[in-house]
Amino acid sequence: MKLSVIVPFYHMEKDGKLTYCMESLLHQTMIGDMEIVAVDDCSGDGTYEVLKEYEKRYPQTVRAFRTPENLRQGGARNLGLDHAQGEWIGFMDGDDWAAADMYEKLLTKALETGADVVGCDLHETGEHSMRIGRIRNANTMDQTGILDKRKYRKLILNPCSMVIKIYKKEVIDRNHLRFPEGIFYEDNCAGPVWMLHFTHFEKVEEPLYYYYQDQVSTTHCISEAKCRDRMTAGELLVEWCKRDGFYEPYKTELEFAFAKLYYMNTLFTYMIGVRGARPGFLEELRQGMRKQFPHFQKNPYFVEAYDAEQKKMAGLHMKSVLLFFVYYRALSGYRKIRKMLTNKKAGRRGEKS
Q1: I want to staple 204 with a disulfide (CB 3.0 to 4.6 A). Which of 108, 120, 223, 285 is the partner?
Q2: What is the pTM of this model?
Q3: Would you report the helix, strand and coil content of the chain in percent, each value rounded to 5?
Q4: CA–CA gap between residue 11 and residue 41 (Å, rounded)
């Protein structure tokens, strides 16, 4: 068996996403030499029964499993890894799909180059079709080839999604690579750590993966709990890199990766997306950042990545949660009023014309 594609599903019995995903895999050009490891993450609907029906119809290709409790996507993927039989491992999200020749092209690139991990680009789309949507270029070509310290640094800063890659299972097994369980944003931790264990990365410069986005996706539903999951992912990133001996060689890159994931993304998505934002949470976030990397604002990647206003906001928050909270609310209110007045003025001009 050349390839195992592991796909977690959760509550997807009725909306058609499960079927679209599975059919795209069953119509892969290399389907005779791959398996689909479909994992129901303890759904409360009939998702598992649908997957078992696929297993019954395609016994040589589909293997269906169910987690004993809801473990989030990372836990479902770990269960899939425990059962996968392929020489290579791919991952797909249950509401996404792939071009028919995606896995054949990735595997061909691996065999031609001797790479132990291969990726591609992707589409972002809001409709279930094979029509090309918005192309998102993923990893850059200067990250590819035999991996050295310079390329590892680039991959820590920009590992890109794990669902657009295939990984050699021998490397996964040898290094006991797994995902965080019970949280969202598991890729943000696992992605950089996994790449540090591989030695040769190649890329097919084509958008072969269809990444489905709608208003109920993880990235559009912000809550304090999900913000905490992002913080946990950041803490695990540092913890796992220390465990595996990557912390000291790449401390500057990890400091920035942590500041971006744990702190900056959380700070602004929390203020924008969470109703009833609490100063207590903001204080917890501040203390966590201070404990891990107290001088992150001087990090060269941080200085380059963020604009003056973002750095000002971060500096204010690190100085005083109360000052930050009051200033942020006042600034947001001012901008809403200004936007409203601008829209009214534009409407009046339209009426006159």
Answers
A1: 120
A2: 0.92
A3: 55, 15, 30
A4: 8
Distances (CA, A) of 239 to 13, 222, 247: 37, 25, 9
The alpha carbons of the chain give a radius of gyration, in whole angstroms, of 22
Asked if residues 51 and 21 have their Cβ atoms less than 8 Å apart, the reply is no
Q: Which two tokens stand for residue 195?
A: 């790449």
Query: Shortest CA distance to 167 belongs to which of 277, 323, 4, 345?
Result: 4
* Separation between Cα atoms, residue 62 and residue 56, nearest integer Å: 8
Number of helices (H) and strands (E) in the chain: give both, helices first. Answer: 14, 10
3-state secondary structure of 120: strand
Q: What is the pLDDT of residue 219?
A: 44
Name the pLDDT band for 334 (thresholds 50, 70, 90). Answer: low
> What is the distance of C-alpha 168 from the center of its chain?
20
**Nearest Cα to 149, choosing from 225, 244, 254, 249?**
249
